[in-house]
Amino acid sequence: MPDDLGQDRIAIIGMGIRLPGAGRDLDRFWHNIEHGVEAMSFFDREQLRSWGYPDEVIDHPDFVPARSVLDDYDCFDGRLFGYSPQDCVLMDPQQRVLLECAWSALEHAGHPPIAPDGNRIAVHVGTGLNVYLLDILWPNARAVKSAGGLQILVSSDKDFAATRIAYKLNLQGTAFSVQTACSTSLVAVHLAVQSLLTHEADIALAGAASVGPPTRRGHFHEPGGIFSPDGRCRTFDSQAQGTVDADGGAILVLKRLEDAIRDNDTVHAVIAGTAAVNDGARKAGFTAPGPEGQATAVRSALAVAGLEPDAIGLVEAHGTGTVLGDPIEVSALRTVFDTDRPDRQPVALGALKSIMGHLDTAAGVVGVVKTVLALKNRTIPPVARFTEANPALGLDKSVLYVPTEAHEWPAIDGVRRAGVSSFGIGGTNTHVVLEEAPPARTNGPRRREGSELLLVSAKTEEAATLSLARINEHLAGVPAADLPDLGYTLRTGRAELPWRGCLIRTPDEDFKPLRPVRRATASQAERGVGYFLTGGGRLPGSTHTYNLDAHFRQIVDQGYAELRTSGGEPDLETRELVGRFALAQAWIDALRRRGVRPSALVGQGVGALAAACAAGVLGFTDAVGLALGRPADGLRCAEPAVPLYAPDGTPIGAGQAGDPGYWAARLHEEHDRSFAPPAAGPDPAAWLEIATQVLPHVGVEPPALSNGYDQLLASVGLLWEMGIGGPWDPALDQGLRRVPAPGYPFAPTRHYLDIPPTAKERHL
Q1: CA 691 → CA 9, 539, 542, 604, distances in Å?
Q2: CA 571-574-580 angle, 5° bins
């Protein structure tokens, strides 16, 4: 990619889908594309009758009972989005699909699906006609009367598709609903790109959904029309006679390329240029395709990208498979791509409709997803069921060809590039130029490899348990070097929901059994965690953390540096006191950098001195001086920033806390170095016993771990399960990348009105 063009490029950093034959699974979708697996469904008489089809329709010789449908078209995880069952059943199923796709796409991008305040995340989406409202909801008079007119309007109208997503996900950029018929979703992509290039938004979501109820699972074939006589689409083939309707949706997450590289996002592909034009009156009729407008859209997008037609190796066509549409589209493409360059590489044609039919408003964005996957896999996918080209296309004299099987995608001048077209009834033509992602690079030094804390959360116990299991399964394919990226993505790129679980993945140890998930509560978060600093433990027990964590090492070294500058030769007891004090401070700092701060501090012996330092009463050097036996006279103590307590729970008042002699006297007090929570006084939701390692006391048995660093991570994770903790120090995440990881395991349940008897009066 030329460096001077990079600033005008847009990165695709996330994708979310709901598609026939693939569901929410991008890998499964690619498998279907690569192998030409069709997603069309065909329905029998019993099914059709149950959906209200009269016999005269079923038996009509031109009726074709076929459509590509979603397996769980009538289901929705409304609980995740805070909707009541009544809200769910009233909502346009297309908008329900969009909500789930938006959530999945943001998670795929490694960004939290519920965005923090102050974001500039835009939403550009559209839907098809709300046939659920016409065929099923409106005829249910009781449901309509119960809901009321305003609720029906807000739940059903296209105008609210974008703003609904913005509201539920707290997206505070522009939110525009887009409607240009079949080209809706690619126009949404075009507009989202414009919002990023003009810096109106920093991240943009773009896509669409089209979902019809069971009352629309068939069509009438008309010779020369758009619908196939047998329920299959044979794009570009000599036997092509039309397409079939399909349900589904997709959303992309877009970001300026330079920003995505700066922020270490995973770039799946790059949008090099987009264009949208209209035919005007330059065609045979309002619903007819216009070759001049189509060619203009392609040329304009290439011009925006700064590319010649010779740079393109694949064009994902609108490809309706109709007698009229295919020749017109290929004719328009030939005027652009049939150049005179003698060494011109062939340009493959792609046609999503050959395996899935026509996704209507969602067709363009799903074509982009398909092409992104092809770029990532460096593979030209086949056009399904293609046997012989339609002679009217003139492909025998063209650089364009129809691939019949998947094959390697050769680069042109070192880069693979593609175009995606989408043309709407009425004449709005759109084209997007894509190119493969630049080589991944990381900004800043990466954290050293070690164990990683992996966090999951969900709305329900069942979803959290499933999510934890999916992450555990995913780990089998994650190299040790990529564990930090996964941990970072799960911690910063997911919503924090009440049911939570964590696991520690140690690169050189076997997988451990998963622990049950727990529910975080506001009361636990408010009570926080108390630190009990005992000063006990084996001094050599922190070597692993010392070697792994530079900040930890710096604090420990600072303690021993104070020893070396103290003059004379401190005795063994003094060296141990300083060592234990420095380790306690290092652990407290390590917890702070991982979002954990104490609500109460208790210490005994040298642990009392560490507590005073952690509360801000004493500085590090002054505290070490007391451990070395220096006079307390002249030291000044500050007000404690955290409540301090004696081991029995007695509060340490301001007078005692401000007296250096008090802390010097406590240094050598008789005490039991084992942990026992105070019988009175502070009442945190959990305790951390801090000695030469960190041991959690959180109401559950902690996992058995082999070193102090893993125990630190376990303590942070177990507290997070309770709702205790906050953001990590950004320095810990320097150089880490957001990477795709298993997303939310939606728990969809059926929210759909029964088909009313009046459906029989509906005409297809």
Answers
A1: 53, 9, 10, 11
A2: 140
* 726/595 Cα distance (integer angstroms): 4
Residue 23, Cβ neighbours under 10 Å: how many? Answer: 16
Rounded Cα gap, residues 744 and 646, in angstroms: 45
The two three-digit tokens of residue 304, written as one number:
């925006």
User: Between residues 645 and 149, which one has the greater pLDDT?
Assistant: 645
When pLDDT is cut at 50, 70 and 90, the band that residue 25 belongs to is very high
Report the C-alpha gap between 384 and 381 in whole angstroms: 9
Query: Quick check: 738 and 110 in contact, CB under 8 A?
Result: yes
- Cα 675 from Cα 208, distance rounded (Å): 58
CA separation for the pair 638, 585 (Å, rounded): 18
What is the C-alpha R_g of the chain?
32
By DSSP bridging, strand 10-18 and strand 248-256 are antiparallel
578 residue type, one letter: V
Pair of tokens at residue 195: 């919002």
HSE of 630 in the Cβ direction (CA atoms, 13 Å)?
A: 19
For residue 100, count other CB atoms closer than 10 A to its CB: 23
Give CA–CA dist 74/78, Å, rounded.
12
Token readout for 295 is: 């060619």
CA dihedral sign, ordered 599, 604, 607, 610: positive
Write down the pTM of the prediction: 0.95
What is the sign of the dihedral through the CA atoms of 74, 80, 81 and 83? positive
Cα–Cα dist 455/471, whole Å:
9
CA distance 356 to 246: 6
107, two tokens: 């998670």
C-alpha to C-alpha distance for 676 and 697, rounded to whole angstroms? 10
Question: Does 4 score more than 60 pLDDT?
Answer: no
Q: How many CB atoms within 10 Å of residue 72?
A: 14
pLDDT tens-place string over residues 288-346: 888 899 999 999 999 999 999 999 999 999 999 999 999 999 999 999 999 777 778 99
Cα→Cα distances 454→128, 468, 474, 740, Å: 39, 9, 12, 14
Amino acid residing at 78: G
pLDDT in the model for residue 468: 97
Tokens representing 54 are 């009269």
Q: Which of 240, 474, 210 is nearest to 349 (CA)?
A: 240
What are residue 448's phi and psi, to 5 degrees? -65, 150
Reduce the DSSP state of residue 349 to 3 states and report it: strand
Report the alpha-carbon distance of residue 336 to residue 305 in Å, rounded: 15
| Residue 311 identity | A
Residue 118: DSSP 8-state: T
Dig out the tokens for 82 from the structure.
Answer: 């805070």
- CA–CA separation, 361 and 249 (whole Å): 9
Determine how β-strand 347-350 pairs with β-strand 400-401: parallel
Residue with structure tokens 């329920």?
Answer: 231
Contacts of 430 (CB under 8 A, 6+ apart): 180, 183, 186, 187, 189, 190, 274, 275, 276, 297, 364, 421, 422, 423, 424
CA atoms within a 13 Å half-sphere pointing along the CA-CB vector of 683: 4
At residue 2, the pLDDT reads 45
